[in-house]
Amino acid sequence: MYQEAYRAVETVLKDATGATDVLLGDGGEHADLASTIAFALAKTEKKSPVLIAGEITAAITDTLAAAGITVSTTGPYINFIFGPAYVAGVVKAASRPGYGCLAAVPGRVCIEHTSANPNGPLHVGHIRNSVIGDTLSRVFRKAGYDIDVQYYLNDMGRQIAIVSWGFDHLDIPQNEDEKDDHYVARVYVAANHALKADPSIKEEIDRRMGLIEQGDPETVEKFRRAVSLCAEGIKVTLNRLGAPHDRFVWESGFVQDGSMVEILDRVEALPESSHDDILAVDLTAFGFEKEYVLRRSDGTSVYAARDLAYHVWKGEHFDRLINVLGADHKLIGAQLQATMKLLGEKVPEIVFFEFVSLPEGSMSTRAGKFISADELIDEVTKKAFDEVTIRRPELPEEERRAIAVSVAIGAVRYDIVRVSQEKSTVFDWRQALDFERQSAPYIQYSHARACSILEKAGEFTPAYEFTTESEIALAKQIGLFPVVLRTVVNELRPHHLAIYARDLADLFNTFYHTDPVLKAEAGVRDARLTLVRAAQNTLSEVLETLGIDAIRSM
């Protein structure tokens, strides 16, 4: 509905002014749309912008009135307000299942996210990657895209060589009920302690690195066994977080099938390549001082070489490539993009994010000083259960625990995604679980309240006449959902959807408190119930797109 109204205004303005860009944007608090075209025309027409705005308004008012759109001026600004027909149309559309879904878009999109080294469990520092990546994936699917979500498994790195050595030389049994990835982390930490105590072990680690490059079957099997064990544990955590992947891609596959060697041969032929002991690419033309190293002097490849082969493969199978990477990968990510350009390959778009931490401080898997994502989820779930028990002590324990899980995952995901990715953030469970604050539980509770109203109301006849300020504001916010989806797709900034969800919950609660629903007179009651149903359905769709359960009772 919004896009149709926008295009109607844009077309009329273009016809009236002859301008190709009519400078149409958000109207703020006083209008649905506003144009500053009068400022641009003032230079060529040599008239006051206020006078020009008045002339344009006079010329287009009747045409847009027929479309139910009111035109007015505030000084040089031309304002457009969508009328009752638009509001009614939005509420009708928003009452249907799947509201917000956009038309199918041709082509395929690959979104790679998380891709943490498989030498231990995901920790708090990793999950911002997972939440941003999964939210983007959900938005793209909602916006009509064919999506493949991938996790790139680094199964050839030095960390895995250390883990494999630890399994071979350290007698560390797995504890009962210990998750596989946590077990791998204990072996990795112990192996690092052994390496620190006896530096000669480094020779064996280096030997294993050479053997894995050569495809030695025994070494490949040892590496794969350790990585598979850790990956299974990571998958459990990702599923708890509501962020599953469509496939896990193994780094070693691009060595075994020869594709990495093919890419390195192509790189060697580039005029920007240097061959002094190592293979590297000179990227000074792109503003980089450091060379992009792909092969060591001993002939073994580095991670970047396999990553390059992986991205060439992705470019052959997908039309748009999106990577989610931490800010510490900015250099290597930009070097990858530059090298892909030199090779004439499809260049990935990269979403860089700053880090999320806990008040307790920094984390290191190598030193064993980290708070795992599992521990965070467990702790927040416990706190959520306590809060739900205080609020709803009459509910059976099983139901309170189920609600607590949904609230906890929602709290973690929302608190992470609500902050724009270029800003670092600290996760504070007290704020994340505040039902009164603009948090996930606050939005979930708004949805549950809408469900409760509809349940109490029973059957009603849909009606679409809305007159109060709160009714119209809520309906128009509902109408922006598809617009926000397009914005996230275009800008790759999922926090826009989180902000929209909060604002929608705010406007629903304002409406609920100012305009009686169940006690309203018959005709008004039906219209308000219709609006509640549209709000409930929209909140449900928005929460689902954010990866948060739309709970019907809290």
Q: How would you describe what is shown here?
A:
This protein is an alpha/beta fold and 554 residues long. It has 3 domains: 81 residues, Gyrase A, domain 2; 245 residues, 3-Layer(aba) Sandwich (Rossmann fold), CATH 3.40.50.620; 173 residues, Isoleucyl-tRNA Synthetase, Domain 1. It has a 5-stranded parallel sheet with strand order 7-6-5-11-12, with helices on both faces. Strand 1 and strand 2 form a beta hairpin. Helix 17 runs antiparallel to helix 21 and helix 18 packs antiparallel against helix 20. The radius of gyration is 28 Å and the shape is flat. About 1% of the residues have low confidence.
Compact overview of the structure:
The chain is α/β, with parallel strands linked by helices and 554 residues long. Helix content is 56%, strand content 11%.
Task: Spell out the key features of this protein.
Rossmann fold; Isoleucyl-tRNA Synthetase, Domain 1; 21 helices; Gyrase A, domain 2; alpha/beta; 554 residues; four-stranded antiparallel β-sheet; flat; five-stranded parallel β-sheet
How would you summarize the topology of this molecule?
Layout: H1 2-17, E1 24-26, E2 33-35, H2 37-45, H3 49-66, E3 69-74, E4 77-82, H4 84-94, E5 108-112, H5 124-142, E6 146-153, H6 158-169, H7 180-197, H8 201-214, H9 217-240, E7 247-250, H10 253-256, H11 259-268, E8 273-274, E9 279-281, E10 292-295, H12 303-317, E11 320-326, H13 330-342, E12 349-353, E13 356-357, H14 373-391, H15 397-417, E14 425-426, H16 429-432, H17 440-457, H18 469-479, H19 481-491, H20 495-514, H21 522-545
Parallel strand pairs: 5-6, 5-11, 6-7, 11-12, 13-14
Antiparallel strand pairs: 1-2, 2-4, 3-4, 8-9, 9-10
